[in-house]
UniProtKB/TrEMBL annotation, chain A:
<feature type="transmembrane region" description="Helical">
    <location>
        <begin position="240"/>
        <end position="261"/>
    </location>
</feature>
<dbReference type="GO" id="GO:0009055">
    <property type="term" value="F:electron transfer activity"/>
</dbReference>
<feature type="transmembrane region" description="Helical">
    <location>
        <begin position="281"/>
        <end position="304"/>
    </location>
</feature>
<keyword id="KW-0812">Transmembrane</keyword>
<feature type="transmembrane region" description="Helical">
    <location>
        <begin position="112"/>
        <end position="133"/>
    </location>
</feature>
<feature type="transmembrane region" description="Helical">
    <location>
        <begin position="213"/>
        <end position="233"/>
    </location>
</feature>
<keyword id="KW-0479">Metal-binding</keyword>
<dbReference type="Pfam" id="PF02322">
    <property type="entry name" value="Cyt_bd_oxida_II"/>
</dbReference>
<keyword id="KW-1003">Cell membrane</keyword>
UniProtKB/TrEMBL annotation, chain B:
<feature type="transmembrane region" description="Helical">
    <location>
        <begin position="222"/>
        <end position="241"/>
    </location>
</feature>
<feature type="transmembrane region" description="Helical">
    <location>
        <begin position="16"/>
        <end position="38"/>
    </location>
</feature>
<keyword id="KW-0812">Transmembrane</keyword>
<dbReference type="GO" id="GO:0020037">
    <property type="term" value="F:heme binding"/>
</dbReference>
<comment type="similarity">
    <text>Belongs to the cytochrome ubiquinol oxidase subunit 1 family.</text>
</comment>
<keyword id="KW-1003">Cell membrane</keyword>
<feature type="transmembrane region" description="Helical">
    <location>
        <begin position="127"/>
        <end position="150"/>
    </location>
</feature>
<keyword id="KW-0479">Metal-binding</keyword>
<feature type="region of interest" description="Disordered">
    <location>
        <begin position="439"/>
        <end position="464"/>
    </location>
</feature>
Amino acid sequence: MELTTVWFVAIAFLWTGYFVLEGFDFGVGVLLPALARGEAERRQALATIGPVWDGNEVWLITAVGAMFAAFPAWYAGLLSGYYLPLVAVLAALIVRGVALEWRGKVEARARAWCDAGIVAGSAIAAFTWGAVFGNLLAGGPAGTLAGGALALALAALHGAVFLALRTEGPLRARARRAVPALAVPALPLAAVTLPAIPGAAAGGTGEWTAHPGAWAAAAAAMAALAAAVALAWRRREGWAFAATAAAVALLTASVFGALWREPLPGLTVAGAASGPYTLGLLTWIAGAALPVVLAYQGWTYWVFRRRVAA
Amino acid sequence: MDALDLARWQFGVTTVYHFLFVPLTIGLGVFVAGLQTAWHRTGKEHYLRLTRFFGKLFLINFAMGVVTGIVQEFQFGMNWSEYSIFVGDVFGAPLALEALLAFFLESTFLGLWIFGWDRLPKRVHLACIWAAAIGSNLSAYFILAANAWMKHPVGYEVVAGRARMTDVWAVLTNPTALAQVPHVIAGAFVVAGGFVAAVSGHRILRERRAGRTGEPAMWRGTLRAALVMTAIAGAVVAGTGDQSARLLWEQQPMKLAAAEGLRHDERGAAFSPVPGIEVPKALSLLAAHDPDAPVQGVEDIQRRYEAAFGPGDYRPNVPVVYWSFRVMVVFGLSAVALSMLGLWVTRRRRAVPRWLARATLLALPLPATAMIAGWLLSEIGRQPWTVQGELLTAASVSPGVSLRAVAFSLALFTLLYGALAVAEARLLVRYVKAGPEPAPAPAGRPGPDDAGAAAPAPAPTLMY
């Protein structure tokens, strides 16, 4: 496999990791006031993501850093081209991050501000990421809005399943009951948006449209979403979470499949790439380091595997 | 005023702001890890109380460093797309490595540390804070190596208008990086030392007023530890600063000339600490370790650069560079001098005099101001280049981003950062005033193979 292909796949993998992982902590943030009643439950809900959200966000930093190193022109074109949406993402991530870290330390009356920051920051970041990729693929306002709405709806669904998996007591029951309600916007949006992705590649090369993988990914993502709702209802929360995670991963993979060859209008992967020396170097280092990172992040989830009580 | 000016302002504002928090993260993380190690080895409960107390202050500050850091990584692509395309092959690699090797380590293990008090065996929990502290310091190395490359590009060639890395070892062992990394990291320890000293000084004054006798001894311990840290780090800052000046003489003569306000080439150049006073031959001695060495002057370099790079103004903002240099040296050395004086007057169990406790409080802004002044010297002194000799700042900016867009983001970040600075300061003051919590009731002495079950109750204040 060519090094440019390796790095395109690696970057797609990093973005997938980001959306799967931060997707649920965005969801928990968005749902915080809706599902968690009272201070004890809010602490309970936030304690499920507390140890991991910052590590989840590093997937974004790594994905963007890898784009900078491996495909400078893609990095530069994407970030300068989506300037204002990214300002919104950054502001949302700042507010949300500070609110999450400070919530337990501020005076009681300032907690409401932190909660508002967590909800708004999570919602804006999730929506805007979806809108950016929707716009990148489809161009017009319809694609932008559909992408944003789908990302927000999926984050909420993914977050509700995660809360049901990681909490006990009334919060768990409420989160589980919220899953079918959240599926009401998420499933139709996915049903409309997912099949549009393969045909929406920026270059319109049709390569991804013709690829059986594209349609398999869309179909599998839909199936996974439907399965997640059924599994959550039957209290199989672990499997339900695996299903929403798979749906988010398949969606992201599908998006990057559509971006292959032409990640930005007028830009090819080869034309955006760094030289073979840098790509080879990065391959060696990432090949050695990424398994270690996955191991210790996985270990974190193992350490905090117990359900959180109120 | 065009988008270029505002993009520069935004980079300056967001970077200086980011770097108010970073040094404290770097230095205080190690200090907290040291306190927890002391607890682990001695079992003395006041070390546990101090670990939690400074741990809280560390986390309040850490959050700000993290969230403002994301802006930095995005900003190159957003405002400086031409720069990013030119340098990505070389400059992007250390940034990617920083995220992969340092940020994952830092954030993951800090999460484990915050929430792992009652989940992890004590030794593993202690290892978590060290892993996080190592991650912070490692990240500084990568970003400073990337920054050093802008000032002294090495290990690359320019192919089709883009820099291509040819030798990563040269990039990672760039002499400018090897001088700058210890200079900035030691500077971070001076900032953290000044912070811990000021907090300890405040607590000493407060406890004495309250008439508590036991507590001031504890704070005398942290004060002395902080002063030792500041003094040692101060010596490293001075030594590597001297080395940096010599590298400027070789590699970035314009910055050196601007820092000294030297207009014309001179042999045996004099050093003037302030305008009007001159020490003969001192500049040559400082910059080249040779009293008769030639030092280049701003106007003569300008003439040579015009001949080499074509017409243009290659002079940085001389007054800013000149005064930044002096603020850096004077403020930095004052903080270090105070730490040495403080160690002397508190030697051999002598109590902390009231004036020293007050002085540590007054000295709180000195190291951070010196740090910021150092960055202004370093980065404004690099102008008009983003990559010395290769790429001008004016050619680095994103061509497609409008003045309005940059003005909006600059205004938004400035407002947001201002509000958060006030909130952070209030939070820190509140927790410093509240002081450490009393020792947990069953203060179990940590045994060497003690598993988490026997640990004292978890610290809810460290959690959400």
